[in-house]
From TrEMBL:
Top-level lineage group: Bacteria
Signal peptide location: 1-25
Region (Disordered): 341-366
SMART domains from the UniProt entry: ChtBD3
Native source species: Chromobacterium violaceum
Molecular function terms, GO-annotated: carbohydrate binding; hydrolase activity, hydrolyzing O-glycosyl compounds
Comp. bias intervals (Gly residues): 347-359
Any one GO BP annotation for this protein: carbohydrate metabolic process
Gene: chiA
GO terms for cellular component: extracellular region
Keyword GTP-binding annotated: no
Domain Chitin-binding type-3: 361-403, 407-449
UniProt keyword list: Hydrolase, Signal
Protein's UniProt name: Probable bifunctional chitinase/lysozyme
Length: 450
């Protein structure tokens, strides 16, 4: 009788998309905002810090039913686009080092694909493009704001996701799916619970239900205690949701479905602040109960702001902390989706260490983005960017400052008096009288000089 019960339990677990008890483990997969510039170099981040996997955010629609990073970078896009190349190279290099990634669709900004793509076929094609481009086996759906209440779009979304999982299974593979939803200290909102019910009703096998333990809008709660309270409430909500769809999960299986994502440091809703001590408190609960997932928003924020600034920013936490203090707490979750990353603080990254940014001293390119301090060569001279620029020609725009001595390149913003000379397109020109903004090749007031 016990053997029969165990066999039935195993079958039920498989049908629900669950791991066997022996395989239960927790993963730390912090979010990475892939729309930042320079593009976060995930292989360098992962190997330097010993982080096993990342959640890459966010894929949304661009120009209709077409996938893109942040509504800007079309997927798959041009092979010559440096940001897209940096993303592809980062993923490939990270996998080469034993890491793995999950791509997140949706988020707070832009139009989710399930709303932009109005048919199942078009939505499935959009998702398949992303899956194929990055050879994915793990995806996340961050559904928040108005997207939560779009019942038709959510049903379409989960019907398509279930179909994709079925296709993967037919090929002997698994498409792992995480569902990320806003939460309050009491757990999922009513809208979030309806989204979860839609996923289960459409037959999606969920690895985790991941709550955003942030921006509650309440009066300065203890963010560690609030996150723990929300996780406990989520456990009960997952239990009820699965029972409503005819599945009873064990205690261990329910905790494996629980995922929690706090916002490191200052939250958007002030004065909410998630501290390193809060992270330790949450990790203690997660570790003892074996949560399936810990994440955070975001890896780029896991450091203090310049001069220990106290503000909300995409690339720092707004609190005083040591670099990667939050990651060092959460990476106690040892599960790894890849073959396993070996930490190496000296690894320089496989993309020239620049995350898709320009390499100083290379020839100027009209399509490259340059930040303050980047240097290029153009018309035989070296130029230094004074601020962000793209497409501005060195010698013809004030953003570029020529470096070194000797005859200076002609500048459209410089004033020249009679007999002043300048280089233009590799040739020397001298002014006949005062001039500003006139191309040396236009004739008067310039004359070609030997």
């Amino acid at each position: 009788m016990m053997k029969r019960f165990a066999a039935l339990s195993a079958l039920a677990a498989a049908a629900a998309g669950l791991a066997s008890p022996a395989a239960l483990a927790g993963a730390f997969a912090p979010y990475v905002d892939m729309t930042l510039w320079p593009t976060p170099q995930i292989d360098k981040l992962g190997v330097n810090q010993g982080i096993q996997q990342f959640t890459l955010a966010f894929v949304v629609a661009k120009g209709g039913c077409a996938p893109s990073w942040g509504g800007v970078l079309a997927i798959p896009g041009s092979g010559s686009d440096q940001q897209l190349s940096a993303i592809r190279n980062g993923i490939n290099n990270f996998r080469g080092k034993g890491g793995e990634v999950m791509v997140s669709f949706g988020g707070a900004n832009g139009t989710p694909l399930q709303q932009a793509c109005t048919t199942n076929a078009s939505l499935q094609a959009a998702y398949q493009t992303v899956l194929d481009t990055y050879n994915l086996s793990r995806i996340d759906f961050d559904i928040e704001g108005g997207a939560q209440t779009d019942t038709a779009a959510n049903n379409r979304n989960f019907a398509v996701v279930a179909a994709l999982q079925k296709n993967y299974k037919a090929k002997g593979k698994t498409l792992h799916v995480s569902l990320t939803l806003p939460a309050m200290p009491f757990g999922l909102t009513q809208d979030g619970q309806r989204v979860l019910a839609s996923a289960l009703a459409n037959g999606v096998a969920l690895d985790t239900v991941n709550i955003m333990a942030m921006d509650y809008g309440q009066s300065n709660p203890n963010m560690g205690a609030a996150a723990k309270q929300a996780a406990q409430a989520l456990y009960s909500q997952i239990d009820a949701a699965y029972k409503a769809h005819g599945q009873t999960l064990t205690d261990a299986q329910l905790w494996q479905k629980v995922g929690v994502t706090p916002m490191a440091g200052l939250n958007d809703t002030q004065p909410e602040t998630f501290t390193v001590d809060n992270a330790k408190d949450l990790y203690g609960m997660a570790n003892s109960n074996r949560f399936g997932l810990l994440s955070m928003w975001s890896i780029s924020r896991d450091k203090s702001c310049p001069n220990n600034g106290h503000y909300v920013d995409a690339q720092c936490s707004g609190i005083v902390q040591t670099p990667y203090a939050f990651s060092n707490v959460f990476k106690g979750f040892k599960d790894h989706w890849g073959s396993g990353v070996t930490q190496d603080p000296n690894y320089g990254g496989g993309d020239n260490g620049n995350g898709g940014g320009p390499v100083n001293g290379q020839p100027w390119s009209s399509g490259q983005v340059y930040n303050t301090g980047n240097t290029v060569t153009y018309s035989g001279a070296t130029w230094k960017a004074q601020w962000w620029t793209q497409g501005d020609v060195p010698g013809q725009a004030s953003v570029w400052q020529q470096q070194g001595g000797g005859l200076q390149q002609w500048s459209a913003t410089a004033a020249y008096s009679a007999k002043d000379c300048a280089l233009y397109q590799g040739k020397k020109y001298c002014a006949k009288w005062w001039t500003q903004g006139n191309l040396p090749t236009s004739g008067d007031p310039w004359a070609l000089s030997n």
